[in-house]
# Entry
Amino acid sequence: MKNLTLCTVLVIASASYAQTPTPPSGQPRLTFDVASIRPSLPIQHGYQDLKARADGYMATYVPVKMLIAYMYRIPARQIIGGPSWLKDDRYDVEAKADQKRTVDDLNTMFQNMLVDRFHLKFHIETKEANAYVLTIDKSGSKMKVNDQPQSDDMPMTFSSIGVWSGHRVPMPYFCWLLSQNLQDDERPVVDLTGLTGFYDFTLSFLPPGLPQEQLDQLSPEARDRPTLFEALKDQLGLKLVAGKGPVQYFVIDHIDRPTSN
# Structure
């Protein structure tokens, strides 16, 4: 993940953010059954990996800044403050729940682990800044509403490069994923669709910024896919344009190296 030096922008809101998600009344705080955090060995250099499982996460040679970005679904360039070791130190993490859990539950568990083991404290600031603004195209949304109960299925699967299959996807998650794929443009994706439900869809496009060696490995049909912007409009009925919007920044107030296992 790339880092971005934040330019000066107008602060339109600054809100305190709960350091641990508050569980519903009468419900226990969600934590992993097993949580191992160890400094990575130097021999692992270059093998950065973060994998989600039905019952937890496995990370190898991953910086803490990447973990925060993934678990709070915010691009790393929008994480401000904190010591330099956030991006320099690497860790191996094995976090496992007592059973299969939903993606949201697993993310809450990991957020709680960051608070408990790293003593993370932060707040969110919202600023008007350059962004990609996502709205509904004049043709209307073509995504299928999914009203099924929450499940432990991953909301997005990737059958091949540039082919996404969404199952019960909320728009904040989708915008975060779009931001990850457009991070070279240094513009986060801001959701102004007004869509508040969960949606099923398939999206097929030629990913931006693919290196030539990966392009050469694609089939002629894959290389002829539309751009991400075209695919969003034609396949999902969504419009993505460069502009300005309310961008959230994750401001770190305090963090320590992790406590021992």
Notes: Residues 1-18 have pLDDT under 50 and may be disordered. The helical segments are 64-71, 85-88, 103-118, 171-181, 212-217, 220-223, 228-236.
